[in-house]
Design goal:
Strand 12 and strand 13 form a beta hairpin. The chain has one domain: UDP-N-acetylmuramoyl-L-alanine:D-glutamate ligase (3-Layer(aba) Sandwich), CATH 3.40.1190.20. The N and C termini lie far apart (39 Å). By secondary structure, it is α/β, with parallel strands linked by helices. The chain has 10 helices and 13 strands. The strands form 2 sheets. Strands 5-4-1-8-9-10-11-12-13 form a 9-stranded mixed sheet, sandwiched between helices. A 4-stranded mixed sheet has the order 3-2-6-7. Helix 6 crosses helix 7 and helix 9 crosses helix 10.
Length: 315
Amino acid sequence: MRDAGGLEALTIGRVGVDLYPQQSGVGLAEVETFVKFLGGTATNVAVAAARLGRRSAVLTKVGPDGFGDFVRNALDGFGVSSRYVTTAPNLLTPVVFCELSPPSDPPLLFYRAPIAPDLTIAEDEIPWDIVDSVPLLWVTGTGVSAEPARSTQRSVLERRARRGHTVLDLDYRPMFWPDESTARTEISWMLDYVNVVVGNRTEAKVAVGTADPDLAADRLLARGVRLAVIKRGADGVLVATEQGRWSVPPCRVEVVCGLGAGDGFGGALIHGLLSDWEPERIATYANAAGALVASRLACADAMPTSTEIEEVLCI
C-alpha cells in the first residue's frame, strides 16, 4: 500500500461530548453535577489506539460551537490527529448524558437532533488518498444508519476493496434505527467489503441472524471475513479465522462503568493487527484493555497504556 503520511489507523464515525454524573446510583432526575469527557465510538477507538503508541486519526464532524472546539482540543491532547474533523454549519455537536446505574450497562440519553453531524459526512469530505493507503481503516455500523453518511461509507468501502486491515465495528445502537430489520439490511452488505469484524452477540445477531458465537463466526467467515471477533461479555471472547478458533476467558474486574470498554478493546485490536500478532494474542490483549476501561469512569480518558495492559496480563 502507498504511504499514508505516517498515519497507521483512520477511524470513521461517531463523536460526541459525554456528560457523566458525579453522583452514582441515582437517575438523571436526581443528578446534581456532571463532568464532561470526549466520547463517541470511532473517536474513542482512535484514542485507545493512540494510547498504545499508534498514529491514529478520526474522520468525523462537529458543530460550530464550543463543544466542537472541545472535541478538537481533546483529540490533540490525546495525540489523535484532528485534521479530518470538519464542521457542519447548521448542526450541533452531539451531547450524551449517562446514568451510572447499572454500572455494567448504563442508560444513555443522546441529543443528536435533528441529525448528528457525523451522519452528514459527504464524499467530498473524504481524504481518498488516505483511504487508499492507510494500513488500517475502521468503520462502524452506526455510520450507515442515515444518509448521506450511509452512501459515503459505501463508497469508502468499495474504494478500499478490503486492502490492508479493513475493520467493521458492528456498533449496533437500537435508538439510531427505525427497526432491527433495517439495521440488518444496511449493516449486512458491509460484510462483503471488510476483512475484520468485531461485535458482541446482540450485534452479531443483527448482522448475520444469530447470537450464537460459533455460528456467527461461521457466517462471517463464509462472507470472506478474515478475522471474526465475537465479544461474549462475562464469557470472554471468541476469535475465529479459516485456520482455527480460540476462546479467550474474561478478565475479572469490579465494573465502575461499562461504557467505553468495547472501544478500549477496539483500540487494542488495532494495535494487535498492526503488530501482526496471532489472533489469540490479539483477543487476550484486547480483552484486558476492555476490562481496564470497565473498571474506570469515562471513555476516552479511561483508555489504558501498554504498561497497564501488560500488568493485567501478568496477574
